[in-house]
């Protein structure tokens, strides 16, 4: 059974349809990437999955239909979303940001989870009492990811984690994602403009153009595809 799949997914803002029959599937434990230029509809796709825009069609996670469910219930079913711009609380400490991620869980469990994820993010551990707003962009992205992980998701959604980060920092973010995926088996779906680093981390890729999936396949064959190289690898 496919772990996560959208079928005939359409999303609109008011009268304007932005996503057209989007079909994406991800196997359990995989990292999948959706590539697309500015305005292709990547953010809308993430927002459709989390119930933040009006959608039609089907979104199934582990056998459960999510279209029509509210955002909090989608989160409870195991989807965590790291939005574009990260959504960290700049006036809260690193530790308090992480506690926000665990708001549905008992305090003791949150403390144990924080320790677990600090192992993957040693910088967050050493800065746990500092305000999130004082950290670098890369550290804030790591914090946003760690906060999402504290909620113990089965599917982690990431909206352009490379945005605004230097290439070296982007590589660090993807390297920790790959490590977390390998060690914990968590399924990851990431949308990116930065094809090079994303395709290197992923096993499967999709290309979105003007709200439609126009290509899909193994990430490896996409990395070697001339058309994709020209369009997304510079
Ligand atoms: P970016 O990388 O710039 O975020 P994207 O691929 O994530 O681009 P979306 O943000 O999903 O693309 O936008 C897709 C289309 O939907 C664009 O044409 C955009 O103008 C439109 N759109 C996005 N948000 C809204 C909104 N709140 N109301 C109306 N139209 C919107």
TrEMBL record:
Gene Ontology molecular function: ATP binding; ATP hydrolysis activity; branched-chain amino acid transmembrane transporter activity
Please give the Gene3D superfamilies that the UniProt record associates with this protein.
P-loop containing nucleotide triphosphate hydrolases
Domain of life of the source: Bacteria
For this UniProt record, the keywords arranged alphabetically read as follows: Amino-acid transport, ATP-binding, Nucleotide-binding, Transport
Question: Domain named ABC transporter: which ranges?
Answer: 4-233
Describe the family membership recorded for this protein in Swiss-Prot or TrEMBL: Belongs to the ABC transporter superfamily.
| Name recorded for this polypeptide | Branched-chain amino acid transport system ATP-binding protein
The taxonomy runs: Bacteria, Bacillati, Actinomycetota, Actinomycetes, Propionibacteriales
